[in-house]
Amino acid sequence: GAKLLLHGLCSNTTVKSLDLKGNNLRALGAEVLGKLLLQNKSIRSLILEWNNLGMWEEAFSFFCQGLGANNFLQRLDLRNNQIDHRGAGELAVALKQNTSLQELDLRWNNIGLLGGRALLNCLHSNRTLKKLELAGNNVPSDILKAVEQAMDHNQDRQTILRETQNREYILSREVLSLKDEKTKQFLDLMDTIDKQKEEIARSGRMSAARVSQLQEALNEQHSLVNSLKARLQMTEAALALSEQKVHSLGELLNSAKQEQTSLAERHFMELQQQKQEGAGREGKLLHDLSDAKEKNLLLRSQVDELEKKCKVQQAKKDQLSQVKQDLTNTTAELKLRAMQAEECLKMEKRRFKQSLEDMESLRVREVDRMTQHIEASERSMQDRIQRLEAVRIALEEELSQAKAAALAERGQAEEELMKVRNQARLEEQQRLEHLEEKLRLMTESRDEAQNCCLKQKQMVAEAQAKAHQLSLHADGLRRRLEELQQELNSKEEEKVTEVNKVKVELQEQIGHLQAERTAQDGLREKIAALERQLKALSSNHREALLDKEGEISMLLEKLRMKEADISRMRQEEAQRATFLQNAIMAYVQGSSLGTHSSRK
C-alpha cells in the first residue's frame, strides 16, 4: 500500500505535508521513500514517526541518498525508527549535500556516541539546519551542547543574511525614492523656469506697449511742432504789421519748447526706470536659476555617493569574476600556443614541399647532363668512325672494344642514376619521418598543455575547497573554545559572585550600547578586562583540569596555526558595529549556561 501511494505522489505537485506515522514501513517502504524524495518537488513536511526504517541498512542508505538530493523538504520527523550509528552516518552524509532541510527530529533512536559525532561533523558544512532533536539516543551531553551551539550559529547566520537582504532592499527603495524626488524637483524647476520665461515675455510685451505709447506721444509732439512752425511762418508774414505780436509769439514758442523738453526728459527717465526694473528682474531670475542648479548638483552628489556604496558591495563579486578571467586568460594562452604549433607545422610542410621540388629539379638537371654527355660521346664516336672508315677493316676489333667501353659507361651512368634516385628517396623518407616525429611531439606538447590547464583548474577548485574547509575548521575551533570556556565556568563554583557582577556590568553595557553606539570603545576595554580575569581564574584552576590538558594543548597548537585567520576575522567583526550586539548576547548566553551547569 505504501508503495502504490508513494509511486502516485512522485509526480504530484500539490501535496505540501505527508504524515505516515505508525505504518510499520520497512525495507521496501524506505526505498520507495528515497525515490519519492528524488522525484517530488512539492512536499515540505514529512512525518515518519513509529516506523522501522533504520533496521535495514541498504534501504535506509537509499532513503538517505534521496534526502541528500532533495532540495525542497524543510521538516523531517524520524522518531522511534531504530536508527543506529551507521544510519546516523548515512544521515550525516545526506545532510552535507542537502541545502533545504531546517528541522530534523531523531529522538528515541539508538544513535549513540559515534552517530552523534558523525552528525556533529556534518553540521560544519550544513548551513540551513536550524533544529536538530537528539534526546533519548544515548548521546553525551558535550555533543548535545555542541549540536545546540551549531544550531544557534546557523540561526544567527540566517538572521544576519535576512538582515542584510532587508537592508539591501531598503537601500534600493531609498535610491528609487531619491531618484523620484530628484525627477520631481527637476520637473518643478523646469516649471518655475517656464513661468519665469512667461513673466519675462509679459514684461517685454508691456514695455513694448509703453514704448509704442511714448512713440505716439512723440509723434503728436512732432505734429504740434509742425503746427507751431506754420504759425511762425504766419507770424513772420505778419511781422510787418505788428512787432508786439511777434515778441509775444516768440515768448509762447520758448515756453512751448521748454514744455516739450521737459516732457521728453520725463519720458526718457521713465524708460530708464523701466529698463532698470527689467534688469533687476532678470538678475533675480538668474539668481533663482543658479540656486536651482546648486540644489540639482547636491542631489546628484547624493546619488553618486549611494551608487559608490552599491559599487563597494559589488567589489566582492568582482574578485570572483577576476579569478574566472584568470582562468579564461590561461585557456586563451593555451589556445594561442596550439595555434602557434599549427602554424609551425604548416611552415614545416611548406619547407618539406620546397625541398622535394628542389630534389626533383636537381634530379632532372643530372639526367639532362648525363644525356648530353652520352650524346657528346656518341657524336665523338661517330666522328671517329667517319675518320677511320678507311682503316675500318683493320680496326674492327678496336671499334668493338670501343663499343663495349661505351656500353659499360652507359651502364655505369644508369647505375649512378639509380643510386642517386634511391638516395633521394631515402632522404625524403627520413625527412617525412622527422616531420612525423615533430608532429607527434607537438601533439604531445599540446595534450600536456591541456592536461596542465585541467590540473590548474583542479588546483583552483581544490584551493577553494581547502579554503572552505579551513573556514569550517576555524568555526569548529571557535565552537570548541566556547565549549572549553563553558566547562571552565562550570568548574568555577567559588567565583560565582564575580561572574554575576560581570553579568550585571555586561547587561548595563548592553543597555548603553542600545541607547548610544558611541560607547563601543569602553565596552571593548571592559570585555578585555573580563577576558584577563577569566584567564587568571583559569590559571588558578589548572590543577582541577589535568584530564583536559591534552585536548587543550592540541587546540592551542591548532589555534596558533589559525591565529592569523582568527585575528583577521576579529578585525572584520570589530569593524561591523551592527553585529556587536549579537556577539555580546552570545557571550552572555554562554556565561548563563555555565552558571546553570555549576549550580546543578
Automatic annotation (TrEMBL):
Give the CC-aspect GO terms: centrosome; plasma membrane
Localization (cell): Cytoplasm, Cytoskeleton, Microtubule organizing center, Centrosome
- Establish whether keyword Acetylation is in the entry: no
Q: Which UniProt keywords apply?
A: Coiled coil, Cytoplasm, Cytoskeleton
Looking at the record's lineage, which domain of life comes first?
Answer: Eukaryota
Which residues are in coiled coils?
211-245, 289-323, 378-572
Q: Which SMART domains match?
A: LRR_RI (SM00368)
- Tell me what this protein is called: Leucine-rich repeat-containing protein 45
The species this protein belongs to is Buceros rhinoceros silvestris
List the top taxonomic levels of the source. Answer: Eukaryota, Metazoa, Chordata, Craniata, Vertebrata
